[in-house]
């Protein structure tokens, strides 16, 4: 899972752009998917952030998108009960709401075989007060923070060449955190989105990304569209591009 223990001060990004958050949700109302089960955890979360309301208001008050998961009576699995997502990474909350963890992650190659059991154990043993975080990465053909790609990878990356890869490819990172809410016991999953043109990264980081693209888990590279841009990225990296 690649999780790191975080302090309270490291939990959320300071100084969020409130106007950008409000615009993000106004432009994409579908990003808010709230079940009745999310009401109490959402209110608890909003109070933690010093705002009035529930999950939607909490997500408006932070840079991060926010999802709530909990166990239903008689079940030992965690389900997505609430999502306030302005800037998704190519997923639709309406398709995921109510699903258990394994179904939520079904499209990710290798999740069931390599991660599912460990994730389930982590969720079950997570204690209130502890905060954990991790980061992932994607290569996208857009610098928009809301990434919903309707095109095939071959279409989306058709314009990318070794010469323009620095401007045509965008590195998208999700800074994710997990913590259990102390009163309701629900688990909060936050997703902070950061996007930059590939060319703004250092030459070493570009080379690392190019290497990582070649070594994605079998099947995951296809899901991320890597075959459509990998050659251009490799050539770009080989020439030491970057600040």
Could you walk me through the main structural features you see in this protein, from its secondary elements to its overall organization?
With 243 residues, the protein is of the alpha+beta class. The chain contains eleven helices and seven strands. It has helices at residues 18-27, 39-48, 55-60, 93-96, 101-104, 111-125, 153-156, 165-168, 203-214, 220-223, 226-238; strands at residues 4-6, 32-34, 65-71, 78-84, 131-140, 170-180, 187-197. The protein has a seven-stranded antiparallel β-sheet. A hairpin with a 6-residue loop joins strand 6 (170-180) and strand 7 (187-197). Helix 9 (203-214) runs antiparallel to helix 11. The longest helix has 15 residues, at 111-125. It starts with a strand and ends in a 5-residue tail after the last helix.
Quick one: overall form?
Answer: elongated
Q: How many DSSP-defined strands? A: 7
What is the strand arrangement across the widest sheet?
Answer: 1-5-6-7-3-4-2
Helix content: 25-40%
Structural class based on helices, strands and sheet pairing: alpha+beta
Biggest β-sheet description:
7 strands, antiparallel
Please state the average pLDDT score.
90
Span of the ends, CA to CA: 31 Å
Q: How much strand content do the residues show?
A: 15-25%
Helix/strand layout:
Layout: E1 4-6, H1 18-27, E2 32-34, H2 39-48, H3 55-60, E3 65-71, E4 78-84, H4 93-96, H5 101-104, H6 111-125, E5 131-140, H7 153-156, H8 165-168, E6 170-180, E7 187-197, H9 203-214, H10 220-223, H11 226-238
Antiparallel strand pairs: 1-5, 2-4, 3-4, 3-7, 5-6, 6-7
Helix pairs in contact: 9-11
């Amino acid at each position: 899972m690649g999780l790191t223990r975080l302090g309270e001060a490291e939990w959320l990004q300071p100084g969020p752009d409130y106007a950008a958050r409000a615009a993000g949700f106004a432009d994409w109302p579908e990003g808010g998917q709230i079940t009745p089960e999310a009401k109490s955890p959402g209110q608890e979360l909003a109070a933690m952030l010093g705002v009035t309301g529930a999950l939607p208001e909490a997500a408006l008050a932070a840079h991060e998108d926010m999802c709530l998961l909990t166990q239903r009576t008689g079940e030992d699995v965690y389900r997505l009960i609430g999502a306030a997502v302005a800037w998704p990474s190519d997923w639709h909350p309406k398709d995921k709401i109510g699903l258990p963890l394994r179904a939520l992650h079904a499209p990710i190659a290798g999740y069931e075989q390599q991660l599912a059991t460990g994730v389930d154990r982590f969720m079950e043993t997570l204690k209130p007060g502890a905060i954990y975080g991790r980061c992932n990465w994607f290569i996208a053909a857009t610098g928009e923070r809301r990434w919903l790609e309707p095109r095939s990878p071959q279409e989306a990356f058709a314009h990318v060449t070794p010469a323009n890869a620095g401007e045509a490819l965008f590195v998208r990172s999700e800074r994710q955190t997990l913590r259990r809410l102390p009163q309701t016991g629900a688990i909060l999953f936050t997703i902070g989105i950061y996007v930059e043109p590939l060319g703004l990264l250092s030459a070493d980081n570009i080379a690392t990304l190019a290497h990582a693209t070649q070594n994605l888990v079998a099947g995951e590279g296809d899901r991320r569209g890597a075959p459509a841009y990998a050659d251009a990225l490799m050539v770009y990296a080989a020439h030491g591009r970057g600040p």
